[in-house]
Design brief:
With 243 residues, the chain is α/β, with parallel strands linked by helices. The protein has a single domain (2-241), classed as Spore Coat Polysaccharide Biosynthesis Protein SpsA, Chain A, CATH 3.90.550.10. The protein has 6 helices and 13 strands. The protein has helices spanning 30-40, 75-80, 101-109, 171-185, 203-212, 232-241; strands spanning 2-6, 24-25, 28-29, 45-50, 63-66, 90-94, 97-99, 114-119, 139-143, 146-151, 161-169, 218-221, 226-228. The strands form 3 sheets. Strands 1, 4, 5, 6, 8, 9, 10, 11 and 12 form a 9-stranded mixed beta sheet that branches. It has a two-stranded antiparallel ribbon with strand order 2-3. It has a two-stranded antiparallel ribbon with strand order 7-13. The longest helix is centred in the last third of the chain and has 15 residues, at 171-185. The mean pLDDT is 94.
């Protein structure tokens, strides 16, 4: 199994301009924590997608793919800068999240072709989270064991959970994701689900496209601890929760 970590984003909301994944959590960058956990979980083939701050990364035993056009697009196209790496069994992860082994093992063992790792007890994570309101959550709606709607700006009422920023792909799921992306890549529809245009699309927009095409997306419960680090307040919380 391979891991592809999306690390091209900058920490502008944190008061700096460097990569978010290199923010320090109790002496260790978040990205290093992820890589260490992946290796401990048996995933040693790790690919990191970087942006204009590629020289800020110095992790051993990691392969890098540079997204040279990062400033012109958002998460989905950044991921597809590494599309050649999306083959076989793959874990896709954002670099600005921390999680424990229970979350990782739950994703790996789920066996889902395309599995969205979802926090089913998500609302309590927003208690006291004043710098990142619930309106910014990546909502996941589920019906009959399938994800039926996902993305931001979706009413939270009736939501099953929040997408944590991790996807588990089987070999067939990897082929489906890349194939469906390449199907719409030429047309570059605008708008594209929740994004104002294709260049601004998130991974959740591509997932919604697949849902609308009848492709099964499986919700995989986040079975352990995790946290997203998007604001200074989040970083403080991460330093308390992940020692």
């Amino acid at each position: 199994m391979r891991a592809v970590i999306l690390a091209a984003g900058s920490s502008t909301r944190m008061g700096g301009g460097g990569p978010k994944g290199m923010l320090d959590v109790n002496g260790t960058p978040m990205l290093q924590r992820q890589v260490d956990l992946l290796r401990n979980g048996g995933i040693t083939d790790v690919v990191v997608v970087t942006g204009r701050h590629g020289d800020a990364f110095s992790l051993d035993g990691v392969r890098y793919v540079e997204d040279v056009n990062h400033e012109r697009h958002d998460v989905l196209l950044s991921l597809m800068a590494a599309r050649k790496e999306i083959t076989g069994d793959v874990i896709i992860s954002y670099s600005d999240i921390l999680y424990d082994m229970d979350v990782l093992e739950g994703a790996v063992r789920s066996g889902a072709e395309i599995g969205m790792v979802t926090d089913m007890d998500w609302r309590k994570r927003y208690e006291g989270r004043t710098e990142h309101p619930i309106s910014e959550a990546d909502i996941v709606r589920v019906d009959g064991g399938r994800v039926v709607r996902t993305g931001k700006r979706i009413p939270a009422d009736g939501a099953a959970g929040e997408f944590i920023g991790m996807v588990r792909l089987s070999p067939a799921g990897s082929a489906t994701l890349v194939g469906e992306f390449e199907r719409v890549e030429g047309a570059r529809p605008s708008p594209f689900h929740g994004a104002q245009d294709f260049e601004r699309a998130y991974l959740t927009d591509m997932i919604q496209e697949m849902i609308d095409r009848g492709i099964k997306i499986t919700p995989v419960a986040a079975a352990g601890r995790w946290i997203e680090v998007d604001t200074p307040q989040d970083l403080e919380n991460a330093r308390r929760e992940f020692t």
